[in-house]
Design brief:
The complex is a heterotrimer of chains A (about 400), B (about 70) and C (about 180). Chain A is built from 17 helices and nine strands. In chain A, helix 4 crosses helix 5. Chain B has about 70 residues and is of the alpha+beta class. Chain B has a single domain, classed as Alpha-Beta Plaits (2-Layer Sandwich), CATH 3.30.70.20. In chain B, strands 1-4 form a two-stranded antiparallel ribbon. A two-stranded antiparallel sheet of chain B has the order 2-3. In chain B, a hairpin with a 5-residue loop joins strand 2 and strand 3. The radius of gyration of chain B is 12 Å and the shape is globular. The two termini of chain B are about 25 Å apart. With about 180 residues, chain C is mostly helical. The longest helix of chain C is centred in the N-terminal third of the chain and has 29 residues. Chain C is globular. Classes of the chains: A alpha/beta (about 400), B alpha+beta (about 70), C mainly alpha (about 180). The interface between A and B is medium-sized, with 28 and 16 residues.
Chain lengths: ~400, ~70, ~180
């Protein structure tokens, strides 16, 4: 597998002139149909976590916009509501023009006169500065601050934030591509996806495909964190073995017990089992995990996985948008139960499993499904600890049992 | 026509009338909110499903044509 | 004697209508707030509310038609729909027409509920709170039967149960 040059993250200079010198200009004229075919041929999928084929989504919005004769709304999603993930902030801070190029292309492909990039506060300065450098371009690009909160980055929540100033998921139907909160066909694309779009427009689908695997082509940004020597954001070809991914962060800083893959609503994987596997959807499928939004968090062997999971469960419960009964009540009950298990205060696995089954897939967004996935994976990966905790002790990290 | 029952969980207030009227397809979770079992409504229950959807005080239960696709 | 039939039917149906309409108000609040007796399915309260409301329509038609057909007073057919169009006891009859109009709006929006959507339906449904007091004052002022002890008993009884129900609703707040 030839790994082409990984170019998403710039060298620190973010002005327009450096950007153009580094990547070259966008093609002067762009044939919409041809470029859309290229994006489809490249196999670009969303880098926000759901990995939906970008060309299909863009085509749907373009089609619905033409059919309803309305200008579609194009939104670049740089909210990055996940506390542990930094890749979008890093991308926007180091390559803001690449993101703006991508937004411009997305607007062109859907027939929109403008695009809005919703940006995490820490990257807002860089993005606003870059947008100002391009004022007067073919597409009106505006940058606005993202809302706070984990769920704020969900696609419909981001669209609702732009349309109405409320960052709560709206639920589908109707689908965003048909009728978003602003009343028009809406495209919400993660900022990393937009950056890839900008590169495909320049270098073509074959270039894009020269990284990654045939079924999951391209590169992706990962946030490597936890018990590693040099945590941070790196660009990797999809399918790189997990061991090598960790080496991008100078390797583990301690013997590892488990990895949290994807995001807070991703899944735990046993470190030994995961090490040799490719970081790809296909590679991780057997472990019930996926690359997701690119989180690779290393849990050292002396940390209690159940305690970590309880902390995550409480966070996810608190972050509910508060709109749907199963989420508001269910995640709260689940978090309480997981905490009891983690604290060695009893807690019923059967009851927990029952509730996980009840909340999964119910609600206006997939917040409950993500939480269910995370906690189920914890019960699997840290299953050996459950008996200890039930007896009121933790073999791994004795201090956690109060 | 294949139809399915869909709950709008944002609007749903967990009042439980739907589960009362159509226990064959709707049960309540531990917090009183409806769980719809099965993908589509069996033809013999279509009439009951229609009545149940109309009976929801918040109009949170909808009977819709079932389109099994995967676009976002 | 036969010319008095419309008059008697109008008075009788008016009282029955007030009683039924009052029950509709109480059931409406109960459907929203209450759980009902343990063995009473919750769906029944709502269904009863709706069914009784439709009965009210029947009583209303009878009440209005006989009142206007009554040869002893001139109310005029316009007063069936237009408030304060009756030369006879203009204000009193007018309040009755108003109550009927408001009730009519609630009825129509309820029949078209699924097409209108919940929020639009709910906004109009609040008009029912205005319809009842209008109907009540109408019943006190448009007829002469309050001197009959059991008419007064039923009338004030209706006032008590509706005031209780609406009071409970107000206390529960507009939340959720």
């Amino acid at each position: 597998m030839i790994v082409r040059e990984l170019v998403l993250l710039g060298d620190g200079r973010t002005d327009l002139a450096t950007h153009l010198a580094r990547y070259g200009p966008l093609p002067a004229t762009i044939d919409r149909a041809a470029l859309l075919r290229d994006v489809d041929g490249a196999g670009l999928t969303g880098r926000g976590g759901a990995a939906y084929p970008a060309a299909r989504k863009i085509a749907a919005v373009a089609r619905n916009a033409a059919r309803t004769r309305r200008d579609p709304l194009v939104i670049g999603n740089g909210t990055e509501g996940e506390p542990a993930i930094d890749k979008d902030k890093t991308l926007m801070t180091r390559s803001p023009h690449l993101v703006l190029d991508g937004a411009q292309i997305a607007a062109l492909l859907t027939g929109a006169p403008a695009a809005v990039i919703v940006v995490h506060p820490r990257a807002l300065g860089a993005m606003k500065h870059a947008a100002a450098e391009r004022a007067g371009g073919p597409v009106r690009l505006s940058v606005r601050r993202a809302a706070d909160g984990f769920v704020a980055g969900e696609a419909t929540a981001t669209a609702c934030w732009v349309a109405r100033g409320a960052s709560t998921p709206t639920g589908t139907p109707p689908r965003l591509s048909e009728h978003g909160p602003a009343g028009v066909p809406t495209l919400v694309q993660n900022v990393e996806t937009l950056a890839h779009l900008a590169l495909i427009a320049r270098y073509g689908p074959a270039w894009f495909r020269s990284a990654g695997t045939p079924s999951e082509p391209g590169s992706m940004l990962v946030t490597i964190t936890g018990a590693v020597r040099a945590p941070g954001v790196r660009e990797i070809g999809i399918g790189m073995p997990v061991r090598h991914v960790l080496e991008q962060a100078d390797g583990p800083s301690a013997p590892l017990r488990a990895l949290l893959l994807g995001g807070y609503s991703g899944a735990w994987a046993n470190a030994a089992e995961a090490m040799g596997l490719p970081l790809s959807a296909a590679g991780l499928a057997d472990l019930g995990a996926a690359p997701g939004a690119g989180l690779v968090a290393a849990l050292p062997a002396d940390a209690c996985g159940l305690q970590e999971t309880a902390r995550l469960a409480r966070y996810l419960a608190r972050q509910s948008a508060g709109q749907c009964g199963p989420c508001v009540f269910g995640l709260d009950a689940i978090a309480t139960e997981v905490s009891r298990i983690a604290d060695g205060r009893g807690g019923g696995i059967a009851l927990l499993t029952r509730w996980l089954g009840q909340v999964d897939g119910r609600g206006a967004c997939s917040h409950t499904s993500g939480a269910a996935r995370l906690i189920r994976s914890a019960l699997r990966v840290f299953g050996d600890d459950l008996a200890d905790h039930a007896a009121g002790r933790c073999a791994v990290s004795p201090g956690v049992i109060r | 026509m294949t139809a399915r029952l869909r709950v709008d969980y944002i609007t749903c207030g967990g009042r439980g009338i739907c589960a009362e009227l159509l226990p064959e397809l709707i049960s309540g979770d531990d917090w009183g909110f409806p769980i719809v079992t099965g993908e589509s409504v069996p033809p013999r229950l279509l009439g009951d499903a229609r009545v149940t959807a109309r009976a929801c005080p918040l109009l949170a239960l909808r009977l819709e044509p079932h389109t099994p696709s995967g676009t976002p | 004697m036969s010319t008095q039939v419309p008059w008697f039917v109008s008075r009788g149906s008016g009282l029955a209508l007030l009683a039924a309409f009052s029950m509709v108000q109480v059931l409406g609040v109960a459907a929203r707030l209450g759980d009902g007796p343990r063995r009473w399915p919750r769906s029944v309260t709502g269904e009863l509310h709706r069914t009784l409301a439709l009965f009210c329509v029947a009583f209303l038609v009878l009440h209005v038609a006989t009142a206007i057909a009554d040869p002893y007073v001139t109310i005029g057919w316009a007063a069936a729909a237009i408030p304060f169009a009756s030369p006879y006891r203009t204000a009193a009859i007018g309040l009755g027409t108003l109550a009927a109009d408001l009730g009519g709006a609630v009825l129509i929006t309820s029949l078209l509920r699924q097409r209108l959507g919940y929020r639009a339906w709910r906004a109009v449904h609040w008009l029912s709170v205005l319809a009842w007091p209008a109907a009540f004052v109408h019943s006190l002022t448009a007829g002469n039967d309050m001197s009959i002890w059991w008419v007064a008993l039923i009338t004030w009884g209706c006032a008590v149960i509706v005031a209780t129900a609406l009071g409970a609703r107000a206390l529960a707040g507009v939340a959720r």
